[in-house]
Amino acid sequence: MIKERDEMSRTTIIPFGPQHPAFLEPLNLSLKLSEETVIGAEINYGYNHRGLEKALTSDFRRSIYMCERVCGICSFFHSTAYCQSLESLFQVQVPERARYIRTIMMESQRLTSHLLALGHTAEAIGFESLFMQLFRERESIMRMVNDISGNRVHYSMNAIGGVRRDISAQQRSDIVSRMDGLEVRFEELAKIFEKDPTIRARTVGKGVLTPEIARSYGVVGPVARASGIAQDLRETYCQGLSFRPVVREEGDAYARSMVRVEEILRSIDLIRQTASELPGGALNIPFRGRPTGETFTRLEAPRGELLYYVRAKGTTDLERIKIKTPAFVNVAALSAMVPGCEMADIPVITVSVDPCICCTER
Amino acid sequence: MSGRSNTETVARVAAMMREKETRLVTIVAADEGGGEMELIYVLDRDGELITLRARGRRDEELESLSPAYKGAENMEREIIDLVGLSFHGVRGGLFLGPGDDPPLRKDDKGA
């Protein structure tokens, strides 16, 4: 009998992904299980590497197009970080109006990204109607950015020195009214996320990342803020706007979702402020010559800190471009979150990190 | 450009992390040509970026920051894959398969 029980509780290795209904992109977790409990995990990457850091060095003018395609979810953040890097090398001061338009587009993209992550979380829990409602709200933002830029995913709004498209008075008013409507509807969905017993049962205490472990992995964005680390780079570049970061202490899948829920409301507020106070002036400043020198640029992308390092030596080709994405550090922390959880919790915990393999592997 | 060795720089980064909360943002590795490599350790302390630079040779085994800082492991593994450096006790194969040429080496195929 004892021998039989030992036989039943031996450890098993279960591959989770790279193709799995819970993952939008290819990632493999090699899970070590004792019965239904996860006792270890190894993360395997390499299913989607595109060599973009090499490709992006080919021509600094054409690389805006390519760096916007590093990721479809935070595409505008990539092109903004790239343009800001080149603006720094050319010592170009971007017009105030262009800075505001970039902020509107970035915060709109944060809305689409966070609504995608929350919808995906609801779907992983099995809450299909909440998933549908979140995607309905996401669609309204997708249509708004399409009206402004002509594109739903890759906005192609950025240029070195500013932006390529303006926001008209009619569009400003439309943005403000859309934000007013979204705020009212989303507050109802936020209450479901906060209080629904099914969501709480599936997320509270699941995939806990303590502040110490979060720091040891160097996690960023909502994953870090849900573990009590109060870092949001928008505090440094949203000067003049009313903004404070969302921080929670629990460190579990529930806290990570609730940080995104509250950040959606902050982004709505930022978009409304920016659209209401949009200053006049030029859209972009021309630059001359070829870039020289090196620069580091950081932005708060939806998943956290995005860093671009660009080095140029006065030629059309760039010497080196390094992109540090938030998903690169956040996904790695999954191996510390899953030990001790049940196998059935893996999809929710994984989705709560908002993994992006396009960003992770580039 | 600093001529500090990677071993000295790794020790400095580890000391900085011990004395005050400091986050490793990334490690940038660049092939300088002629077998010379540059590593830039990018740190965040109180929201401010700090960079520490190190020089190394392509054929030497470099000191790893991973034992002191878990988050450095994947950064070093990526450098092994893309730039072809080696770090003590760290394996490559994060993104690329065995035998793949490091694409960011200057004088290798495709560079």
Short description:
The complex is a heterodimer of chains A (362) and B (111). With 362 residues, chain A is α+β, with helices and mostly antiparallel strands.
Task: Throw out a few tags for this protein.
heterodimer, A: 362 residues, alpha+beta, 3-stranded antiparallel β-sheet, 16 helices, B: 111 residues, two-stranded parallel sheet, 2 helices
Helix count from the secondary structure assignment of chain B: 2
Secondary-structure arrangement, i.e. CATH architecture of chain A = Orthogonal Bundle
Distance between the termini of chain B: 23 Å
Continuous helix count of chain A? 16
Spans of chain A of at least 5 consecutive residues whose pLDDT stays below 50 are: none
Overall pLDDT confidence of chain B: 87
Count of strand segments of chain A: 8
The fraction of residues assigned to DSSP E strands of chain B is 25-35%
Q: Please state the structural category of chain A.
A: alpha+beta
The major sheet of chain A is characterized as: 3 strands, antiparallel
Task: Please state how the strands of the largest beta sheet of chain A are arranged side by side.
Answer: 1-2-3
| CATH-assigned homologous superfamily of chain A | Cytochrome-c3 Hydrogenase, chain B
Give a verbal description of the structure.
Chain A has 362 residues and is an alpha+beta fold. Chain A has one domain (47-361): Cytochrome-c3 Hydrogenase, chain B (Orthogonal Bundle), CATH 1.10.645.10. Chain A has 16 helices and eight strands. Chain A has helices at residues 2-8, 52-55, 63-67, 75-90, 96-125, 128-149, 169-195, 197-203, 211-217, 221-225, 234-237, 253-276, 326-332, 334-337, 346-352, 357-361; strands at residues 11-16, 28-34, 37-44, 158-159, 162-163, 292-301, 304-313, 318-324. In chain A, a hairpin with a 2-residue loop joins strand 2 (28-34) and strand 3. The longest helix of chain A is centred in the N-terminal third of the chain and has 30 residues, at 96-125. Chain A starts with a helix and ends with a helix. Chain B has one domain. In chain B, 23% of the residues lie in helices and 32% in strands. The longest helix of chain B is centred in the first third of the chain and has 14 residues, at 6-19. Chain B starts with 5 loop residues before the first helix and ends in a 24-residue tail after the last strand. The mean pLDDT of chain B is 87. The chains are: A alpha+beta (362), B alpha+beta (111). Chains A and B meet through helix 9, strand 7, strand 8 and helix 13 of A and strand 1, strand 2 and helix 2 of B.
